[in-house]
Structure formats: C-alpha cells, structure tokens
Hints:
Blueprint: H1 2-20, H2 24-32, H3 38-45, E1 52-54, E2 77-84, E3 87-94, H4 105-121, E4 125-129, H5 140-155, E5 162-166, E6 169-171, H6 176-180, E7 183-187, E8 192-194, H7 198-205, H8 211-215, H9 217-222, E9 229-231, H10 234-245, H11 286-293, E10 300-302, E11 310-317, E12 320-327, H12 338-353, E13 358-364, H13 371-376, H14 378-391, E14 396-405, H15 406-411, E15 421-424, E16 429-431, H16 435-442, H17 444-449, H18 453-467, H19 471-476, E17 482-483, H20 489-500
Parallel strand pairs: 3-4, 4-5, 5-7, 6-8, 7-9, 12-13, 13-14, 14-15, 14-16, 15-17
Antiparallel strand pairs: 1-2, 2-3, 10-11, 11-12
Helix pairs in contact: 4-5, 12-14, 16-18
Amino acid sequence: xxxxxxxxxxxxxxxxxSKLGGGxxxxxxxxxxxxxxxRERLDELLDxxxxxxxxxxxxxxxxxxxxxxxxxxxxxxVTGYGQINGRTVYVYAQDFTVMGGxxxxxxxxxxxxIMDLAAQNGAPIIGLIDxxxxxxxxxxxxxxxxxxIFRRNAIYSGVVPQISLxxxxxxxxxxxxxxxxxxxxxxxxxxxxxxxxxNVIKAITGExxxxxxxGGAQTHLSVSGVASLTAPNEVETLSLCRSxxxxxxxxxxxxxxxxxxxDVPFRMDAELNSIIPDDPTSPYxxxxxxxxxxxxxxxxxxxxxxxxxAIIGLARLNGCSVGxxxxxxxxxxxxxxxxxxxxxxxxxxxxxxxxxxxxxxxxSPGFLPGVNQxxxxxxxxxxxxxxxxxxxxxxxxxxVTRKAYGGAYVVMSSKFLGTDINYAWPTAExxxxxxxxxxxxxxxxxxxxxxxxxxxxDRVMREYTEKYLNPYVAARAGIVDEIIExxxxxxxxxxxxxxxxxxxxxxxxxKHGNSPV
Length: 517
C-alpha cells in the first residue's frame, strides 16, 4: 500500500511541477508584465473544463540539457486538445516561464505530434506563441525542430484550419510558422514578429527602429499585412479566435457550421436603393452595403487596416458562413493595387480550401496606374487574383454595384472566371473604361476640332455612357444574369446560394497548379 501511495505521490508531484512551468517566481514576473501563463490562456480560449493535456512529462534529452537536473516537465510548451463551442481543436501554448519558451528538439516533437493528430482527426490547429525563438544551446537540433513544424504547416495547409495567436515575441525563423498558417492574431503593445531584431538591423544597415515600429501588432496589421486582426489585450485576442472559429469548418471535407439566423431571411432594405451617389466620382461606403446585406452583426472583417481599398471578411447569410470580397470606393476610389491583390487572393484561396461560398461586391475603376506599381509587379500580383477566382470551385456570386472597368471587371469574380451567378445594380457600369478615358482615346480629335470643345466633350461622354456604361448592355450579352434592385440584394443572394450549394466542378488531373507569387 505504501508503495502504491508513493507512486501516486510522485505522479501528483510531477503534475504539479508541470503545471507550475518555470516556477512561482517566474509566473509572478510574467503576471507583472500583464501577461497570462500558457495554461491561463488555454482556459480563456477553450470551453470550460474541456482541455486534455498530452505529453506533459516530456523533457529535454539529457545530452542537450546544460543541467539535466533542472530540466522541467513539458519543455516549455503545453500541448493537447479541447473544444471551442463544442467542437474539437488541437492546441499548443508556448510557456515563456520555461527557458523563455524557446524551442528545442523536445518542444518541437510535442508540437509536431499535436499537428499530426489534428490532421489525422480533421480538427483545427491553434498555436499560442510566446517564445524567445530557437534554443541556442541545442544548436542544430533546434533548427531541425523548426523545419519539422514548417513542413507540417505546409502539408496540412488546406486540410485543417491553422491559426496562430502571437501573444509575446516571435522572432527569427520562428516567424515563418505563423506566416504559413491561415490567420494570425496579435496583441497590441505586447506581441511582435520580425526576422531580424532592431540591434541586428542597426549593426548591418545603420537603421534605428524600436520593437513596436519594426514588428508590433499595429505595424503588421496596417503596413505589412501579416496580421489578420489585433486586440488590446490577451483576453480579447483569445475571444477573437473563438469568434473566428464559429465561421470555419473543422476540415476541408466539412461544410462550415450553420447557426440559426437571428435576422429575417428575406429582409429588404430600401436604403440600398439610394446609397450610390448620382455623381459617379463620389465615394460611398461599401462597408455599409455589406452590413445591410449580411445577417445583422455577423460581419468579421479581416486585415481591416491593410490595403483599405479592398475588403475581405467572413459573415453569415441566413445563418450560413460566407466569404466577402469587395473594393472600398471611399479608399483610393476602390482601385486594385499590389497589396489589395495579395489580400484578396489569399482570402479567396482560403475560402475555396474550406468550402466557404464567396460573395463579391464590385466597384473598381481598374488597377492602380503608375511606374511604382508596374516596377513592383502589379501584373504578377494582379494575376494572383485571376488565378484564385479561376481555381475556386466553391459557390460564387458577384454583385456589380457601380464601376467594373477593364481588368478590374475581369478579375473580380466575372462570369468568365467561373462565377455561378452574376448580378448588377441599375447603377452598374461594365465597360473597358469610363467615359472620361474613352473620350480622351476615341474622340479627342473630334473634340479638338469642335467649335466648343467643352460642350462636345460632355456630349460624347453622355453618348458613350448611354451606349456602353449601363448594365443592360452586359445583360443583353449574358454577361450578367440579372439586373436587380439594390434593396433586394440580400434576398437574391440567399436564393442563389440555396440553388448552387450542391454544385460539383471537376478540374483537370494535376499534381498542383503554379500560381504566380
């Protein structure tokens, strides 16, 4: 009996040590910085009492530890599975109180095990990252560990959703794992990501920059486009992750979850009939259009501060998850530039991976002109959008609200890229270019010879508008399926999605395509 009690006591002591991570003193120091511990974060993220830990007793290999007697159970990461809204997810949370959360061979093996289990069982992978990076004293074994994780990020991409929550530092090669995942959330004024830190940059280039400006949450949300969303603190960041999960299926073989709609399915909105200004050069809010069409309070915008001339996000329409893509006419008139192209392309491909129907609202005068854009590869980046929409086999519906000129018309879910249903509002202008540009190219000589060039210019622009810049020309050619009242947009899209939700599309056999990058 005493022997059995001794064994139980030993088990309880090891479990106690594991749950304490680096010890009470380090936990207190961690709390002083306003940060939660790895286990506290998991408690916030997961449904109550749903977390089950795996591999809690793993430690460093003795030959890699500077002092084997000080090796702590868990090796700086808590791994296991739990539930979010009753659905299973696999998680790992790096523990900064244990060797700064640095990644060594044992930690890598634990993370890889969780990733493998997630893929085998068709469940999302969520990583809570707070680490000083590679464990230098483990040398090549640490680099090997990162490579194993990166490979799994790539192989399981499009198989199960992968989400990274940056809750502290994520520097050096460690940043490539989140970059390979589908979504990155960051905590403002607390988390940061970069390949080379401020000290190295100063030594090599002479540039002086602080951590926040170089790789803080706001920088990655608005400048680099690396972050999907940010929040002021950890609790709100973890809550955002829970919200995101409500839109996503568990894997690529499932449909997204359905929630009983709190909105009226066939609600009409008369305000949409007057939302487009009479002046075609005047801006309006596409965000407002989206909010009025989707289920109330369901739109979750992603990358809201990056490439603001484009809008992407998830929403619900009659309780079903949909992906939203659009331009924002009040930002750069809704033109498509390099950043907007990258933003749209990656999101379209994500939705296609996980069976999320795509709704595209179109109002763009074209691609952004200029030497800078051309030299940086707007052709290559714009082609990504073409590729993404052409490759996507999920149900696709587009609505042209106003301008759809030239290349912007083609790439933004046009019928000939495989879009199932194309609608246009009466205010839609589908043409190679606007009236002003057409007057310059087609009628300039005629205008110059006129006795009243200003009046003649106005006349030819009106004539061009009546002849080409109205949706009925496109409707007669079958380029749009129906011209609809703006007020009935919600009704039309819900009906269309119901009609095409069982679509089947078969692509040619191939290993994979070669998307422009």
